[in-house]
Structures are given as structure tokens and as C-alpha cells.
Amino acid sequence: MYLEEIFGLKGKTAVVTGGGQGIGQVVAVGLAKAGAEVVIFCRHGADETVKLIEEAGGKAYYVPCDVTSEDSVNQAVSTVIEKSGHIDVLFNNAGICYHKSTFEASLEDWRQVIETNLTGEYIMARAVAKTMIEKKIPGSIINMASMSGTIVNIPQWQAAYNASKAGVIHLTKSLAVEWAETGIRVNSLSPGYVATPMSIDPNFVEPELMAAWMPLMPMHRMAKPEELIPAVLYLASPAAGYTTGSDIIVDGAYSNQ
What is the dihedral of CA 94, 72, 55, 139, to 10 degrees? Predict the structure, then answer.
């Protein structure tokens, strides 16, 4: 009972961006199992995620949303308020990455990464925080950062991604201070390499990159997506009542080398 009181999310509504697959999908299921009603924001549907949550006895629905569009985000947030009445938790997860050198990448590649990973998280955080303040909800915003916001990954080159995630970490700290008096907590999560279906698919990640990464990992394995759930539940729940402006690194000690 005590653990349910401090880590449980019963009666809460949690929005997860990019929750149609990968880390977003796994975390969405974890939030639902902790008692939250989960709303998935993504561009291309989230029927599978909703089904997984409902099969586990939870509540969920999907709202189409492009996080890079302020109009799309505002409409999606309004839909949640109409259907659920409030938003208590935001897992700001949508993101993209290109493995290209600076001279190989186009300016459009740069803009797409920054628009999705940094500007998109800013747009979402601002829209959700506005509803939290209006309804006097001491909510939790969890921004997806990365160990790449602290270290430079090798051997792939991904300057735009690294810069976007460093920006997310400092955006998080800035919003945490700005909104502290409202009761809204803002933190970021910085995973290392995570074994999602996409990240281990040779069609998306070159096998030689995987071979290069493994010797650099102190634990000699990638994280399981499920291993991120406890950190998210902590940040989302009353247990983290005095935790704001923090970046929680879950990378198997990779960035400590």
C-alpha cells in the first residue's frame, strides 16, 4: 500500500508522445500498469499500444499529433482535456536521429532533428504546462534527453542529435526553475543505447555500428526498454516530489568512462 501511495498513478492522466513504438510504447504500458490513463500522441497511429494497455487491464486512447506543429499540439491537448479533464504527466518522448557526418548531412536534416527533438519538446511542454497551471495541477513533465546530450557518440557522427539532446537537458533545467512555484516538476531522462526493435534492426542501424558499440559498454549489452520504466515512474509519481531540474542518466555507466 505504501509503495502504491508514493509510486502509484491511479487517477492520473499521462500523455506519451511517440508512443506508437519503441521506448514510448514500452513506457506507456508501464505508466498504465501503475494506474494512469494513458493518451498516446503520434503521427501514424498507436492501435498496437492501446491494445497492449487494454489487454493488461489499463485505459488508453490515441490522439493524432505532430509535435513540431503548435496548432496540432494545441488541438491534441484540447482533446485530452475534453475527454479526460486534466493532464498530470507528460512523457515528452518523440524524437528522430540521423547518422551522418556534418558535411554529409543537409541543413534540412539538421532542421528536422532540432524541430522534432528540441522544438517539439518545447511546444509540448508549454502546451501541457499551461493546462496544469490553469487547473492548479502539480504535474510532472519528463523530457526525453540522451546520454548523447553529455557525451559524443562514436564511431557514428550525429552532431544534430547530440546538440538537440544537450538542448533538451538545459531546456529542462530552465523550465524547472521557471515553473517551480507552480508545482510543476520538469526533469529529463537520458538513456544510453536501448535495444528497441528499430535500434537492433540492420535496416536502420548498420551492423558495424552495433559491433563497435558493444565493447564500449561497461555492461557489454544494451538496455532493455523495460529498464527505463522505473526511472519514469519515479519522476512521474509523488515519490519525486522534490526532484525537479534533474537529468536522470540510465546508460549502464557508459558516460562515466
Answer: 70
Residue the block writes with cell 498530470:
88
- 122 assigned to active site: no
List pLDDT tens digits, range 82-141.
Answer: 999 999 999 999 999 999 999 999 999 999 999 999 999 999 999 999 999 999 999 999
Taking the C-alpha atoms of residue 122 and residue 162, their distance in angstroms, rounded to an integer, is 17
- Beta carbons of 14 and 124 less than 8 angstroms apart: no
Would you call 146 a catalytic residue per the annotation? yes
| Residues in Cβ contact with 238 at an 8 Å cutoff, skipping those fewer than 6 apart | 5, 6, 7
From 146, 148, 164, 190, the catalytic residue: 146
Q: What beta strand segments (E) does the chain contain? A: 13-17, 37-42, 59-64, 89-92, 140-144, 185-191, 247-250
Whole-angstrom Cα distance, residue 133 to residue 182? 7
- Domain span holding position 22: 9-250
- Would residue 115 count as lying in a domain? yes
CATH number at residue 65: 3.40.50.720
- Please tell me which residue in 122, 161, 193, 234 is annotated as part of the active site: 161
- Please give the tally of structural domains in the chain: 1
